[in-house]
Amino acid sequence: LHSFGIIMILLLLIACVASRALAASQVNFASFAQGFQHALDDGAISPSLLRHIQSLEGRAGSAPYMADQPIPAFRSTLLANITQAEWQARYNMFEDCYRINTPDVIQPLCDMIRSYEAKYAPEVMVPDPLDLKGLPFGYYANNTPAAVRLALVPRGMVVSWQNAASYSAPPKVLYGKTETSLTLAATGSQHTYGTVYFNDVVLSGLDPSSRYFFQIVDNPALPLSAHNYELSSTWNFTTAPTKGEVKPFTITVVGDMGTVNANGTSAAVAALVPETDFVLHIGDISYADDFFMRPGQPGDDTYESTWNSWQVWQQPVTAAIPYMVLPGNHEVTCQEVLGHIACPERQNNFTAYRHRFRMPSVESGAGSVQNMWHSYDYGLAHFINLNTESDYPNSPEGPGTRLGGGPFGGPGTPNPSQLAWLEKDLQAANASRSVTPWIIVSGHRPIYSSIGSEADAAMYQAFENLFVRFRVDFYFCGHIHYYERLFPIAAHVAQPFTGNTYTNPKAPVYIINGSAGNVEGLHQGTINKNISAFLNINDYGYGRLTVFNATHSHWGYYKAQDRALNDELWVVHS
């Protein structure tokens, strides 16, 4: 009976995931109007639902549909031949109703209206309201840029954002060195995977260690000389220092974050923006694929809405400093329990992750792998971000596995394999130690840990020899939901140190930092003192790395709840 119960739960999960993930695309507000009126004409909207709509429209302030109208008069108003602008206002109200009401009431209503739209006006398609959840009110009506984010590229910066409808001209960003003189302009590309639209604009040829201001042009089809276009808010960023510049810098490192149990980490990361040069997120970013673990949580109970709400939530950070990412297992598909068979094609194979970020893969010689692996220089350090989910022998989430990710490089693709690219990149970085003396590699999964992980052997076989041969200084990872600082390790043999200083380590320093916060909670375990120096299984938190000069770097782990330093390490090269 126990097995039968588990099977039934899995079948119900399949039905739930399929119904939410495969929801038909919504039509635009004009056909929404037709569907709404047909539903009313057919008597498909009950008096109780009408009362609920009335309450919604009163809360949304969408005059002339005031909440104090009697139901018969209110119904007559709904059926009236209203203007296009008024229908647009009603569509905005329904767009927002997902965020301000319980889905058990509003979901059947919106699903019913969608069915009428599909029947009577199927020809004009726009994003499904489920894909708009988690975004600001009025986002669809105004095509407002949302979830603005920055990323490093050589001598430049990528400005990315999303909006509800496609532009009729390439997306555009205005920028300059003063807020009142945005005299430079750059255009980029827009893309979608069947949901909202994503925009990437590369600002290139920027001066190092310089402050720039920028605005996103809301309507890039209109000429700037006409002064009849709308602009976004004005943001600013500081560019990377020149490769090899002897200048201290500090980064914040987070892993396994999501939207649940992450308030402390998120608040701390945001508060530290003025003291941070960029953020490094080492996989398992939004936990969108765990949406079924958050039923009824406003703006966070579908796959796309979780991505939306997480990216909007992080905008105070991502629009101010570069936010560098790499993929984890929770980026592969729309849900992890049943794998790719339960997801539509557009939500498989890291598709959301590949569209929602823009890392320097092309610029670092990886080709068209779309963020899956890449590298970049920042002052005295060379950073490498890897894909530990696919694209190496016996990878845990590669082709033929339950999640079925990749391949992105190697035979059958136009790109070099990840391991071939990594070896070439590490070789070049190691040869440039006089310029960039620190090599810092990150991936989602660990090679070593006190409690072990399911991909340890494959990770060891694929990566460790390269790390040791080319003298990687740090390897940052997550996946295990705790914090652990290990000794330098090579071939399963640790180089133990006493105290909090590793002087001239002979192997990479391994840091597991998978405790930013997530709906699955923290992992438990005991420290393996043969390989590990410090373990915290009780607290969510984040890390900070400061590279001071060619010989000294400092690492600190901080508890999220009080931002207190919990562990620290100096790595010294003499």
What would you say about this model in short?
The chain has 574 residues and is α+β, with helices and mostly antiparallel strands. It is built from 14 helices and 24 strands.
Describe it.
With 574 residues, this protein is of the alpha+beta class. Helix content is 27%, strand content 22%. A 7-stranded mixed beta sheet has the order 11-10-9-22-23-24-19. Strand 5 and strand 6 form a beta hairpin. Helix 2 crosses helix 5, helix 2 packs across helix 6 and helix 13 packs parallel to helix 14. It is globular, with a radius of gyration of 25 Å. The N terminus is likely disordered.
The profile of the biggest β sheet is: 7 strands, mixed
Mean pLDDT: 82
- Number-wise, the strands total 24
Which structural class is indicated by helix and strand composition?
A: alpha+beta
Question: What does the overall shape look like?
Answer: globular
Oligomer: single chain
Helical segment count: 14
Radius of gyration: 25 Å
Enumerate the spans where pLDDT stays under 50 for 5 or more consecutive residues. 1-31, 56-72, 95-108, 112-127
**Widest sheet: strand ordering:** 11-10-9-22-23-24-19
Helicity range: 25-40%
Q: What fraction of residues sit in β-strands?
A: 15-25%
End-to-end distance, in Å?
A: 64 Å
Keywords:
574 residues, alpha+beta, 7-stranded mixed β-sheet, 24 strands, 22% strand
